[in-house]
Design goal:
This protein has helices spanning 22-35, 47-50, 57-74, 91-100, 105-109, 112-120, 127-142, 155-171, 216-224, 241-254, 258-264, 270-297, 299-328; strands at 9-14, 40-45, 81-85, 147-149, 180-182. The protein is mainly α. The strands form 2 sheets. It has a 3-stranded parallel beta sheet with strand order 1-2-3. A two-stranded parallel sheet has the order 4-5. α3 crosses α12, α4 packs across α7 (127-142) and α9 (216-224) packs antiparallel against α12 (270-297). The structure holds adenosine-5'-triphosphate and L-tryptophanamide (LTN). L-tryptophanamide is lined by residues 11-15, 46, 49, 136, 139-140, 148, 150, 154, 157.
Length: 335
């Protein structure tokens, strides 16, 4: 008997809160491309999430344009996946409110991202920063996503999305698919070049963060200044955070394994290694950068992609939202 097998659904997003970093690219975007062939993929720009930290309006608009252009330049194909802007699909904010009432203050207080970001923005510890994971849960649950490709830093948020889904399903009846994280070992946590025990982050400016649109000379300068250690051997080992990070980055760009890289640089110095990594990264990013500038010039195309994407995403999202509202007991005039 022929059995219909449902293709799994994938959902992920990146905040367009600045230019994407090497961390966003290697830990997230680059891995999304291959998934399009196998799964029903929804990739969004999480712009609603960005306002948990104050944004300059004109910059936010520009960053959305840059980020969608980067999605396209990296190989996300609107004919194979749904590309959309979170704020164009009202169901995200709507489901987030509902789920707020199924989320405990205690569980939100344990989130390390909340603790980190409130320490960084002491003057603006707003409620959105606190309920950020609830909006993220809404993003995921609306599409009944089975798999959520993310970097390691997001695993705690994914766990809370699973807890919210399970709690809701148990309180009513099965409503949401309980999602699973999908992490890719290579590039799952790219560290800051200037402080290699901290993750490379978009909101952390300075020489520790490489942005994917940085020109070659800037990339070279940042890698030259990368913090390493007082030894001299290029070896992946505990306590050598800086070198480990450079090895991981080099491996992502060349496809070489750690032993291959160690052998390649045997007997060579840190200076030489840093330059080799820098050149490889800069040259690896050039084609991507060229494609980004082409897409950014074509506003009509970008607007069409976003309008079509929002329409497709809304169709699925609205179905889950009405199902959820029905279960809770909201009055329905169509009945
Ligand atoms: P911000 O600094 O504004 O908080 P961010 O750089 O941490 O931003 P996000 O938009 O929060 O970026 O993350 C988007 C995706 O990139 C997520 O899947 C996240 O796990 C991944 N990611 C972010 N930083 C890194 C990193 N350093 N290494 C690997 N993956 C990362
Ligand atoms: N919080 C994520 C961005 C994000 C996301 C999502 C990722 C918002 N909604 C849904 C996966 C699924 C971050 O990377 N900071």
């Amino acid at each position: 008997m022929e059995q219909e097998i449902r293709r799994k659904t994938v959902l992920s997003g990146i905040q367009p809160s600045g230019v994407l970093t090497l961390g966003n690219y290697l830990g997230a975007l680059k891995n999304w491309v291959g998934l399009q062939e196998q799964y029903d993929c929804y990739y969004m720009l999480a712009d609603l999430h960005t306002i948990t930290v104050r944004q300059v309006p004109a910059e936010l608009r520009q960053n959305v344009l840059k980020t969608i252009s980067l999605y396209l330049a990296a190989g996300l194909d609107p004919d194979k996946c749904v590309l959309f802007l979170q704020s164009m699909v009202p169901a995200h904010s709507q489901l987030a409110w509902l789920l707020n009432c199924y989320t405990m203050v205690g569980e939100l207080s344990r989130m390390t991202q909340f603790k980190d970001k409130s320490a960084k923005h002491e003057d603006n510890i707003n409620a959105g920063l606190f309920t950020y994971p609830v909006l993220m849960a809404a993003d995921i649950l609306l599409y009944q996503a089975d798999l959520v490709p993310v970097g390691k830093d997001q695993l705690q948020h994914l766990e809370i999305a699973r807890d919210i889904a399970t709690r809701f399903n148990n309180a009513y009846s099965p409503t949401f698919v309980v999602p699973q994280a999908l992490t890719f070992p290579a590039g799952a946590k790219i560290m800051s070049l200037s402080a290699p025990t901290k993750k490379m982050s978009k909101s952390e400016d300075g020489d520790g963060t490489v942005f994917v649109l940085d020109p070659k000379d800037v990339i070279i300068r940042k890698f030259k200044r990368a913090v390493t250690d007082s030894q001299s051997d290029i070896r992946f080992a505990e306590g050598k955070d800086g070198i480990n990070n450079l090895i991981s980055i080099y491996s992502c760009f060349t496809g070489k394994t750690v032993p291959e890289i160690e052998a390649e640089f045997e007997g060579k110095g840190y200076g030489e290694f840093k330059i080799a990594v820098a050149e490889t990264v800069a040259d690896g990013l050039t084609p991507l950068q060229n494609r980004v500038s082409e897409f950014m010039k074509d506003r009509e195309y970008i607007n069409r992609i976003l309008t079509d994407g929002a329409e497709k995403a809304s169709y699925t999202a609205r179905k889950t939202l009405s199902k959820t509202m029905r279960k809770i007991g909201f009055y329905d005039t169509s009945k």
